[in-house]
Amino acid sequence: MNDGCTVGQYLIDRLRQLGLEHLFSIAGDYSIEWLNRYVTPSSIEIIEEVNEVNAGYAADGYARLKGIGALCVTYSAGALCAVNAVAGAYVEKVPLVLINGTPSIKKTITFEQTGFSAHHFISGRETDLQSFEHITVAAVRVDNPDLAPALIDYALTQCISERRPIYIELLQDMVDLQCEPPRGVLKPARILSDETSLEQSVERICARLESAENPLIWVGVEIDRFGLQEKAMSLIQQLNIPFVTELLSKAVLSEDDALFVGVLDGQASSAAVTDLATTSDFVLALGVWLTDINSLGWEPDYDKTAFASFDAVKFGTYFGGQVALEHLIEGILAQKIAPKVRKLPEKPARKAPTVGSSDVITYQGFYNFIQQYIDRKTIVSSDASMNYFGSLLLDVPRPGGFIVQSSYSSIGYSAPAATGICLAKSPDQRVMVFTGDGGFQMTAQCLSTQTRFKLNPIIFVIDNGVYAVEQWLADASVFHADKPFYKPCVLHRWNYSMLSEVFGCRGWEVGTYGELTDAVTGALKNSNSPSIIQVRVPDKSIPENAKWKTQ
Prior knowledge:
Elements: H1 7-17, E1 22-25, H2 32-39, E2 45-48, H3 52-66, E3 69-74, H4 83-91, E4 96-102, H5 105-114, H6 127-133, E5 139-142, H7 148-162, E6 166-171, H8 195-211, E7 215-219, H9 222-225, H10 229-239, E8 243-245, E9 260-263, H11 271-279, E10 282-286, E11 305-309, E12 312-315, E13 318-321, H12 325-334, H13 363-370, E14 378-382, H14 387-392, E15 402-404, H15 414-424, E16 430-436, H16 437-443, H17 446-452, E17 458-463, H18 468-474, H19 499-503, E18 506-510, H20 513-525, E19 531-536
Parallel strand pairs: 1-2, 1-3, 3-4, 4-6, 5-6, 7-8, 7-10, 8-9, 10-11, 14-15, 14-16, 16-17, 17-19, 18-19
Antiparallel strand pairs: 11-12, 12-13
């Protein structure tokens, strides 16, 4: 036994080895000693958050750029507040570590056998663990120092292998107990493919790629989650085939590339994208997740589309099980298929719209205007709202420059996720968040953390006074008729820009393009705190590519 290693130190050492530099936390008496004695003196910086769901969203945003994120909470009252954030990370394959400071063995046994309760207890030692078993790929309870290294290593290896959250219960009386020191470095488990399924899948796909006159590649989110950007780009260039993405995978590859056409998300797509998808005689969907967000009023043609995702290939009636996406791409590349000759649709020239400084901002007008400020140094994060539609058609030139939680779609995600994104991004990058007013009301305290740590996201709150996307989903005809909004969709109005005085950052309220110009100019100059820009738009104004459902 190494006298210099304890359970608390072991966990720190493993997290540092995996590249963690920041830990999001909420102080709690069951976790405070580990935070104070082990995390504080380490190279991992504690980011003290204001609530558990914001901490979870921040860790999620951080992990999407860094490859791992972590938050530390306290038992039940804290951990159960983070359930929604962990669930979102599970759905979207984000490697997140939830460390739950947990009552001692003595307190647990006393409660279970006498009924004398410690605060935060619900029904004994299994409550939190069982809650998280369904939304993590590993849930462990560290209640023995000799088993701690194996339990921690197993959970963390699952996290980096599956790219999904894990849950670690760290009992308060385990933290200072001695254990074996870390051995070696943790690595993801090997990816495995069934040789027969892989060979058959490669053969079928290559045959269609060779025979197709107008093939198309649809790049999905798994290309990002499994770090396959370079291999996917090599395949696209080798085949000389145009490619599209989905909203969840927008800007995974450079949108400046000559073969990129746009985002394929049903009827919200541009005309060039829908025309290309319709006229293509074979579509290779690499890592695409089918959701109702990327099939808006439209369904893929399954007879001409080969879906390679979730470790399988589905093409018409063919199913190839246990086919890793990386192995499939490598197999197709090895066949060296002759490149195609195909004329791509011309991309429309982008330029700032001609608007008067006193003109009232519309939803679509805002997105037409903001395009000029998005360059290779910009990371865009769009929240679950009508902003999905507006941001979908933006040009985001830098690979990895767009972050969205569009599969799970928890409103209020993007603004607190920006806390983690700001800490994980490159120094030359700037974060812009587009959120609805309803979503922002849920997580507005993120401004406190961002101000405290001198982070500088620019948060645009589109203020129309309603949960517009919920109304759109329920009855979109309201937006072009003299009909009232559903009462549950109407918000209590906030003066969002004035929150800057509460939290100590910068704020603007704008309703015209002249005011918006001044606000963006000021926000770009503000490098030491978040900037909140309250963008007033008419309540029935929606993006142009959302109007197909209003007819």
